[in-house]
Design goal:
23% of the residues are buried. The chain has one domain: Pnp Oxidase, Chain A. Strands 1-2-3-6-5-4 form a 6-stranded antiparallel beta barrel. It is globular. It is of the alpha+beta class and 150 residues long.
C-alpha cells in the first residue's frame, strides 16, 4: 500500500484546519470523498492544477487512500476559501497522464511566479523529480483525475 511520507501525514490535520478556516494556501484545497468500504466521508488536503478553466488533481504520492476512494466514487466535494463545490472526477488514461505531465504540469510550474516556481520544484523534488522531468514514469506511478463541476 502506498502512502504519503510521515511529515505530510502528520501535517495534514493542521493543513486541513487552516483550509477549513479559509486560509489561502496556493493551489491547495480540501477534497471530501465517500470511503469505498466504509461509506463515510473522508477529507484530505490536495493540490489542484487549474489551467484554461480545467482542473486536475494528482496523486503526488502514488495510489493512496484518497485516490482509491475518488476512483471508486467518481465524485466528491472540494472546498476552498469557504466555498464548497460538488465535482465529478474522471481518471486520466496512461496516455492522457503522459500528456498532462508534459503539456500541462511542466508549463504550469514553469509559469508560476518565482517563489511559486521554486516551491513547486522543491516540492516535486521531494515527491519525485520525474513529475517534472519524465512524464512517462510520472504517469505510470501517479494517478491524475480531471475534476468537473457536477
Amino acid at each position: 500500500m502506498t502512502q504519503a511520507p510521515a511529515l505530510i501525514r502528520k501535517s495534514n490535520p493542521l493543513t486541513s484546519r487552516l483550509l477549513r478556516a479559509g486560509m489561502p494556501m496556493g493551489p491547495n484545497l480540501l477534497l471530501t470523498v465517500r470511503g469505498r468500504t466504509s461509506g463515510e466521508p473522508r477529507t484530505a488536503p490536495v493540490a489542484v492544477v487549474e489551467v484554461g478553466g480545467r482542473r486536475w488533481v494528482i496523486g503526488a504520492y502514488g495510489d493512496v487512500q484518497w485516490t482509491r476512494n475518488l476512483r471508486a466514487a467518481g465524485e466528491g466535494d472540494i472546498q476552498a476559501h469557504g466555498r464548497r463545490e460538488h465535482v465529478t472526477a474522471r481518471e486520466l488514461s496512461r496516455e492522457e497522464g503522459v500528456a498532462f505531465f508534459r503539456d500541462v504540469l511542466q508549463p504550469y510550474v514553469a509559469d508560476l511566479p518565482l517563489i511559486g516556481r521554486l516551491f513547486g520544484r522543491l516540492f516535486f523534488r521531494f515527491v519525485g523529480s520525474e513529475v517534472l522531468t519524465d512524464p512517462e514514469r510520472a504517469a505510470a506511478t501517479r494517478p491524475v483525475f480531471e475534476l468537473r463541476s457536477a
